[in-house]
Structure prediction request, 301 residues.
Amino acid sequence: MSDVVHGHPARGAGLYREPNGGCSMPKLDDASAESCWRPILSGRMADQALQAVDSIAESIPSITPLPGGPKHSLSRGQAGLALLYTWLARTGRPLQADVVAWQYLDQAIEGVSTQAMNPSLYGGFTGVAWAAELVDHLLDPDAGDRNEEVDNALLRLLSQPNRWPVPHDLVEGVTGLGVYALQRYPRPVAIECLRRVVERLHERAQHDEHGLYWWTPPAEIHEEWRKQYPTGRADLGVAHGVAGAIALLGGICGAGTEQAAARSLLEGRVRPSPSGLRRAFSPTKPAALGATGIRGLRPPS
Prediction:
């Protein structure tokens, strides 16, 4: 951990594949997956949609990224593209999608090794590590564990709640870190990270007559919405709000870890009525529940 500064894995430490083994994820049950998914298109429309997917997939590598953009991230960069081509490879279309997936993943990992990235899931090094975990599992299940340094970095961050302002959300905050840790379960460090995630969510939770929710202060609301919610607001969405945290807590309970603490948050969650939802999203009530943007996750100084 001496190479990890402010929670950032120095020069991509651990993300490059090592020859040694390690704890690997349980294999996906393809039969179970097929029983859960249903096609939304069939016949001619399905053929047309797949042709469009092939055309898009074939054109993406030739597109030049915008200068200064987050080109290595999960949400808008190479890590996300690595996942796209991994799933395309699983379907057998287009040809050599697996090769393209590895190329994008290598580029994303190189980005972590050469530039500072925050720890967020969508825009930071955690998202790259999450993508690496999934790509390795789906395309090379026998690959060694390349994420141990990231696990330790996140545990270090999550263990210092008073040193940095931690958003609660999926995109940039604690919920997103929990998604990564859940993917790494049942490794011991991942279990400890999940315990810390639940602790941080407990600390950020608020209660009123509607139930339990997570409040977004004005400083963490995107400037486009800040004037409408000058005192802050709660969020009912997945990306930045209560729904994302609920899904994570359900996954933690399902994994069999931190069940009591996670369940207490789930049982107290907000259950708004339809009329309550209309009031919640009304911009005339600046302190009400609503959708929000979040400013970046900040590591400790």
